[in-house]
């Protein structure tokens, strides 16, 4: 049963706990399970960018919901520029309308006004901040200014107490007086171990996965709040089916023995007690730097392939043996694996290979939209190599399709009218 | 391969957030970290390069990554929200993720020890499971019959404070009833008075926990030194807002002669 969460630690800037090391995905891949859609990495637009110890720490969407305004180093409220044309009419025309919307929203009142541009989708805001920084309009520490200080201090402290304390204590910034500095931070991994939705079973008999380690539920872009319901529903299903399987000792033994899991476990535990590893930077620490320096660019919000050399560098960084993450060693109940990011890193890299159309969440090669939408990108072990290939998207069962029909009909009518 | 790996591959030139590269201060901090388990142990000294804005937990991670991969530490969010990285830094119970290095005197060694009140497992990791056992014994939320599920904002604000608890157990660690007198079998500790206060002051709740407070939670043992309030990372006013009102309820019920007579007369 794999419930090891996502891959945040592979990225230099992440809102995740650094325990998210892709160990589970790597283990599953090693025993032949399919991974899907590993290029779908969600970036939250607003993480702290300074000081380094808290880089990536989440700055809640609530700040923008309460009226937080994004500006670049020239003082421009840049989000107006980045609104997609198709949805432009869902956003306020000017600062006054945006401000009226905030006041109404805070008072839980209906309003004809439209929302501020800062409340565009996560991928769009993340891309916008990234672009501003890259084009030289970033803040001193490489982000954008997020300003809520124009509101009365009492209101900020009451509505955003946790943000007030977070910035005050960790960054010496009083958000009732100064703007915050924020930038995109790796937030969620939509990709992972392919599972059957009813049982949580991976494509290898006896292996189950749930939560962020599993994939297929959130498409290319998870909606806020959905991972919690994912855990509750699919965690329960996987747990129940896993338990049934575990009680069938014949099946259990066969599956494990066949794939040498016990031997792997023994090897991993042995290496934890090895004396030689207690001096000098651990292999993992040495490997992390290069890997993390690559991924934010290659798999980042504006990911692009930068030629074979960079891709190779990252791949090699990710293929090293050793423990990618040094964790509490409550030996001997330690991590039963050669945990590493190489699977996640490799897949993200392969998706970014030069000359191939890209399908990442944040940047897609133009003109591939519908074709990309019809497939899952599958990664599976083939000898010592990783094979990445498209596989057809599972079809929605009829009974679920029927639920969506009325909604779709409405949408179509709306489009006709609009 | 290792030379190539150790070289940043053109990252500094184009990375949009080169903040970490500019963070080094050139200073070093000396840490004395407790290493050991139930059989015993001692403080071990480590020298750690200081970065701007660094917290104690960053230093512990640096030690883990560079010098002592077998150093055990429990942690998760690094944002003072999960309550996992509780320890005693220079003798003060605190969250390591919230302890900024620049708040300590430069050049002075910083000691980091596990919470003393709980049994040590390894290094900085203690076994806090006793707390979960106490928690199970507290009579749970029980809505009054025909309660109106509509409350005043002031009632919400009152119990909301108690819901801020992140269960770091620093208040339990610092409380002398548990720490020095080791009365875990008689005393629930500040964290659970906070939980009980949240239930008792809940406008919908109808359960009575005063007997439990007196006989099982041992609230009389608290002599309001307010150490718990001092160390609470969430700023909950534990003593004044939770413990003292609960003590008053217990006194009213069991020790106030006027109330006793009144109850006798009215039969309430």
> Within the largest sheet of chain B, what's the order of strands?
2-1-5-3-4
Radius of gyration of chain A, in Å, reads 23 Å
Secondary-structure class of chain B: alpha+beta
- What is the number of helical segments of chain B per DSSP (H or I, 4+ residues)? 12
Report the major sheet of chain A.
5 strands, mixed
- Unreliable residue runs of chain B: 1-21
Extended strand count of chain A: 9
List keywords for this structure.
heterodimer; A: 418 residues; Flavocytochrome C3, Chain A, domain 1; 2 domains; five-stranded mixed β-sheet; four-stranded antiparallel β-sheet; globular; B: 268 residues; alpha+beta; Ubiquitin-like (UB roll); Fumarate Reductase Iron-sulfur Protein, Chain B, domain 2; two-stranded antiparallel sheet; 7 strands
Describe the 3D structure.
The complex is a heterodimer of chains A (418) and B (268). Chain A is an alpha+beta fold and 418 residues long. Chain A has 2 domains: 8-40 and 190-252 and 281-392, no CATH class; 45-184, Flavocytochrome C3, Chain A, domain 1, CATH 3.90.700.10. Chain A is built from 14 helices and 9 strands. In chain A, helix 5 crosses helix 6, helix 10 packs antiparallel against helix 11 and helix 11 runs antiparallel to helix 12. The model of chain A is unreliable at 274-278, 296-342 and 349-357 (pLDDT under 50). Chain B folds into 2 domains: 14-125, Ubiquitin-like (UB roll), CATH 3.10.20.30; 129-266, Alpha-helical ferredoxin (Fumarate Reductase Iron-sulfur Protein, Chain B, domain 2, Orthogonal Bundle), CATH 1.10.1060. In chain B, a hairpin with a 2-residue loop joins strand 3 and strand 4 (92-95). Chain B has 268 residues and is of the alpha+beta class. Chains A and B meet through helix 4, helix 6, helix 10 and helix 11 of A and helix 1 and helix 3 of B.
